[in-house]
Amino acid sequence: MADVPASVAHFPGLESIEPVGPATWRWRLERLGSGRLSLQTVYSCRYTVDAAARTVVWESVTGDPDNARVHGSWTVTASPGGARLRLQNTLSIALPVPALMRRPAEALLRTENERLVARYIANLKQTLSGGNGRLR
Questions:
Q1: Of 70, 106, 115, 134, whose CA is between 20 and 30 Å from 93?
Q2: Average pLDDT by stretches of 10, the chain with 136 residues
Q3: CA-CA distance, 51 to 59, in Å (whole number)?
Q4: Separation of alpha carbons 2 and 57, rounded Å
Q5: What is the helix (H) or strand (E) element at residue 56, kind and residue range?
Q6: 25 close to 17: Cβ distance less than 8 angstroms
Q7: How far from 133 is each of 6, 115, 122, CA to CA, in Å?
Q8: How many of the other CB atoms lie within 10 Å of CB of 1?
């Protein structure tokens, strides 16, 4: 979990990820929707690894062209027969859409984010169980 590129290799819907500073990465997700309701999520996060606490924490850093802020963590705890991973993640996005389209856009982004995170976890689980859940 501490190796950002290796972990991100399991994340679906990712257009690109690039280093933008020490332990800092810019995520650019694939564009969602079409026409007037076409949105792309872009955000940058700084990652902090605490091996003693068994955590990886990320916090947003602002930069152009970011339109979202994300913060969260992975926590690893011992479990019978292995380890347990706990993911916490919060995403907020600035939506450049007319007020009339805001609710549909919010619903689309919420549903899509939940789907992507669920698939990411399933892909990681597959790899951690001895398979290959990598997408790239």
A1: 134
A2: 94 95 95 76 96 97 89 95 92 84 83 93 94 92
A3: 17
A4: 9
A5: strand 55-61
A6: yes
A7: 11, 16, 8
A8: 18
Distance CA 74, CA 86 (A): 6
Q: What is the pLDDT of residue 32?
A: 82
Residue 46 corresponds to which tokens in the numbers above?
């700084």
What pLDDT shows up at residue 63? 79
Question: What secondary structure letter does DSSP report for 97?
Answer: S
Enumerate domains of the chain plus CATH numbers. Answer: 4-128 (3.30.530.20)
- Give phi and psi for 111, each to the nearest 5: -65, -45
- Strand-pairing partners, residue 87, are 74
Peptide bond into 65 cis (omega under 30): yes
Alpha-carbon span 78 to 92, nearest angstrom:
31
In sequence order, which ranges of the chain are alpha helices (DSSP H)? Answer: 4-8, 99-128
Q: Which residue's structure tokens are 């955000």?
A: 43
The Cα 19–Cα 27 span in angstroms is 9
Structure tokens at 76: 């690893």
Q: Which two tokens stand for residue 61?
A: 């850093």
